[in-house]
Q: What sequence folds into this?
């Protein structure tokens, strides 16, 4: 026969079961849970009071209370699941939700054309065994000029107008300082390229920027000659343009190479007829290059009697202009989405 205590517990359970069934939202259901099973909940207090009952009544009361709690918990979980699924299917059948509407298009960015060609060039040179190096954009006078055989007061300093910083350093005017940095830490055979941003205090026009990109190249080993230089240049240009490119080599002066050359390519914008980009000449100056000067090898602690090397400094913006027929270098940094979205 059930005791008074057990009858009381059964009455609580039946009432709570009815409340759970009547709850019409998850919030209402949570209220019931707190009221019955929370820290000061009805059933929790009853469970705590079991310890104060006479020893003979404790087992039966504890058992009845725990059974009631488990039944209530199971019913709470079941009701929550059915309320949640009803809420979802209600939203799906909501007449204001039109599944036939097109989704809001996602705006995906694309690689900047300079990055795109830079990564392609890195792949081409990596496949020829070249390492890809990085160098600082804020350089010392030593690496930007002196170790490249351009001492103070040398007229060649005027070839590249320089942004000087108050602390005596400067914004590198070319990527050639990485040549010296590479030779300081690598031993021949050296095969490396160094893409990066360079800065010049220059008036801008269709083919000149004050902030642009170069890719430096360096190969040092025994018996490196101009033939190696030309072979590497041609391979790179053929891969980038996906066809043979008309080039010309003319003598060029740079204090850090001897002999030095200017490699020009036939202008792709006007097909050699003459335009603003090629300054009506039909040719675009793209890639100065030459054999590394013995004095520079010595600055890099390499013995010029044993080793020789070639170096080049590719003007990346101009190469990209030829590749995509872009007729104004200033578009690259304009931030104009109409330009960038074409790539
Ligand atoms: C140099 O910067 C040398 N360091 C290149 C070099 C490296 C020579 C290794 C020999 C051996 P130059 O100042 O000519 O050279 O610049 C190299 C290339 O950068 C140019 O051919 C051109 O394509 C590009 N360039 C130069 N000035 C600008 C500019 N203001 N805007 C955009 N591109 C430029």
A:
């Amino acid at each position: 026969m059930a005791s008074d205590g057990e009858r009381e517990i059964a009455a609580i359970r039946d009432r709570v079961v009815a409340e759970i069934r009547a709850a019409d939202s998850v919030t209402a259901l949570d209220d019931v849970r707190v009221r019955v099973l929370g820290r000061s909940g009805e059933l929790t207090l009853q469970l705590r009071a079991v310890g104060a009952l006479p020893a003979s009544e404790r087992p039966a009361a504890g058992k009845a209370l725990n059974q009631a709690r488990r039944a209530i918990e199971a019913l709470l979980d079941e009701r929550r699941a059915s309320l949640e699924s009803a809420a979802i299917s209600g939203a799906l059948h909501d007449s204001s939700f039109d599944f036939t509407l097109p989704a809001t298009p996602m705006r995906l960015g694309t690689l900047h054309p300079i990055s795109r060609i830079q990564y392609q060039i890195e792949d081409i040179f990596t496949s020829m065994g070249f390492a890809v190096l990085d160098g600082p954009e804020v350089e010392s006078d030593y690496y930007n000029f002196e170790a490249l055989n351009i001492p103070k007061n040398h007229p060649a300093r005027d070839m590249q107008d320089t942004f000087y910083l108050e602390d005596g350093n400067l914004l590198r005017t070319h990527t050639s300082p990485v040549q010296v940095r590479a030779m300081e830490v690598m031993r021949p055979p050296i095969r490396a390229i160094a893409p990066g941003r360079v800065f010049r205090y220059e008036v801008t026009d269709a083919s000149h920027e004050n902030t642009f990109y170069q890719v430096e190249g360096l190969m040092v080993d025994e018996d490196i000659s101009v033939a190696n230089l030309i072979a590497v240049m041609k391979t790179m240009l053929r891969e980038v343009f996906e066809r043979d490119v008309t080039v010309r080599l003319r003598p060029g002066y740079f204090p850090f190479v001897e002999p030095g050359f200017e490699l020009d390519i036939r202008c792709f914008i006007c097909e050699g007829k003459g335009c603003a980009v090629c300054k009506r000449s039909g040719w675009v100056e793209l890639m100065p290059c030459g054999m590394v000067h013995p004095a520079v090898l010595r600055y890099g602690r390499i013995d010029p009697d044993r080793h020789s090397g070639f170096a080049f400094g590719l003007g990346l913006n101009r190469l990209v202009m030829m590749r995509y027929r872009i007729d104004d270098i200033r578009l690259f940094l304009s931030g104009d989405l109409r330009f960038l979205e074409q790539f």
Notes: The longest strand covers residues 211-221. The chain has two domains: 4-92, 113-340. The radius of gyration is 39 Å. The pocket of adenosine-5'-[phenylalaninyl-phosphate] is lined by residues 160, 174, 176, 200, 202, 208-209, 212, 214, 254, 257, 260, 285-286, 288-290, 311-313, 315, 317-318, 329 (CB under 6 Å).
